[in-house]
Design goal:
alpha/beta, Rossmann fold, 6-stranded parallel sheet
Amino acid sequence: MPTALTDEFTDELDELDVGWTETTASNVGAVLAEQTDPPVIGAPSAHVSLDSTPVDVELDPSLEDLRAARTGVTDATLGIAPYGSVVLRTDREPTTEAASLFVDRHVVLLGADDVRPDVTAALRDLAPAFRSERASAIVATGPSATADMGALVRGAHGPETVHVVLLTDR
């Protein structure tokens, strides 16, 4: 169900040139089939069973798999509406960081109810895990880009494209 918060989030994704799809967990396989380019690596998802989708997602990639991967599929713990940012917990699944940074395309699975109104609310939600579990996270905003050498170059330090899958029925 779209809300003012998810509308703000998706508006920001549009501004960042990040694709997005709103769907249910039962339809995520079709979205992944459309949004991934093999070979695909990923981290096990708390949102959906990646083993039950039509996409072959390598959840325990070797170094060779990492080098060959074109798409990475990961969960996001939170979204931050006014920035279109996603928060990726890198301490939960060891392949989250690699699957989000070392690929050409990053597909992010995010519960629509996990979108927060601001950074303060996101940090408030994350603080207990940071304190008790020594958690770590990446806050990612859009595709990787740099203008260090003049013109804007995408994919220089991370994925060239990002697609967020908002799960409405979690």
